[in-house]
Amino acid sequence: MRRPLKRAPSTPVAALGRARSVVGTRTATSSQGAQVAPHSWFRENFHMDHIIQESGPTVKRPDEIREAFTAVHQAEIDRLIEAPWKDHAETNARAAAVERRAYAPILRIVEQDADAEAASQELVHLRGKARAAQEDALPVSPTRSWDAQVRDAFKGVKQGINVFGRPYDWEIRDPVHNAGEAIADKNAGTFETSVVGYYGSGASWATAGVGVALKATIDGVARIAPPMSDTWWWSIDATLFSANTYGLCKVVVQDPVSGAVLGPQGERTIQLWNHTSQTGASGNGFGSFFASDIAPTVTLAAGQVFNVSFLASVFTDQSGSLAFGHSYADCRLGVSLPFFVVHMNV
Predict the structure, then answer these.
(1) Does residue 175 have a cis peptide bond before it, meaning omega lies within 30 degrees of 0?
(2) How far apart are CA 95 and CA 107, in angstroms?
(3) Which of 339 and 57 is assigned the larger pLDDT?
(4) For the chain, where are the alpha helices, taking DSSP H only?
């Protein structure tokens, strides 16, 4: 029997009850729970030990961690992520197979001509160089300000607001298919997914994330608000044939035993891009999305333990290189989550 792991006593946990001054005099608040402003200090020098520990939090981290995130939980996340992508991938794979059958006679003629075959291989090489140069030249433009996300997450300091930060309890690097890649660091609170430089045909996808086990101390409705900071880009290079790519972030709240998603709304998703092209296109951005855009809401009983996972996912589908055309798609999505907020009955 595996012995339960005890949490380090230094794990940062906060329940902001009687509102007090936090980080010197820059965040003074009133006992009536007045709005906290400004929040620019979060961007520059946010540290969880600056948040004052109050007695009697409405949500806390359990004293012991058993096998909180298991194969059961991963299987449910796989289902949520892959269900729409598998149908899309199977449809496109059939289309690609028909395309190759349709062009097979022409391809055989090209293969029998040494000069034409050499030119075809050179064309693939030149297309690859052009695609790499396009990725290197991608500009980056800002989206929303970080301060706005913090204000949206806190909604005024009052009883029932609980703040949790890194390190998280587990890392997620699945599901990954074909050329997808996933990176996660629970200590830093960062995770990244990408599909870059794939020359074959078909779909690729990847999911990465971090998660934490929490415990409610009272009955009520919990709203998990993560002010995620994201950086992303995508690129499509195509002639005649189309390619598709999209990226999203997701928060999933699960039962610690069965892995089932808790209700009434234990899964929330925000899509960052979704693009299809038969020519060439690209997009990019960085910043943060509002915590309320992706905040799940679950009903909890006092003493109930629940798992929260924060995820980033990317998907691409392409034809690869054919005799008279090609299509490629690349993308990358990185997320930073230094802390998140749980509103209990707020």
Answers:
(1) yes
(2) 17
(3) 339
(4) 40-45, 71-112, 114-136, 146-154
Q: Which residues contact 65 (CB under 8 A, 6 or more apart)?
A: 4, 5, 6, 7, 169, 213
Tokens of 25: 């005099």
Alpha carbon distance 182, 265 (integer Å): 26
- 3-state SS, 16-35, equals ECCCCCCCCCCCCCCCCCCC
For residue 264, the 8-state DSSP code is E
**pLDDT, tens digit, for every residue of 72-124?**
999 999 999 998 888 877 877 777 777 677 777 877 777 787 877 777 777 76
Task: Residue 265: name the closest of 287, 250, 248 by CA.
Answer: 250
CA distances from 57 to 60, 107, 283, 303, 308 (A): 6, 68, 43, 12, 18
Instruction: Kindly report the average pLDDT of the chain as a whole number.
Output: 77
| For residue 57, cis peptide bond before it (omega within 30 degrees of 0) | no
CA end-to-end distance (rounded Å), the chain:
40
What are 201-237's pLDDT values in tens digits?
889 999 999 999 999 999 999 999 998 888 999 999 8
How much is the pTM? 0.76
Rounded alpha-carbon distances, angstroms, from residue 310 to 7, 14, 228, 266: 20, 20, 9, 12
Kindly report, residue by residue over 298-321, the tens digit of the pLDDT.
999 999 999 999 999 999 999 887
Count CA atoms closer than 13 A to 46's CA, side-chain side. 17
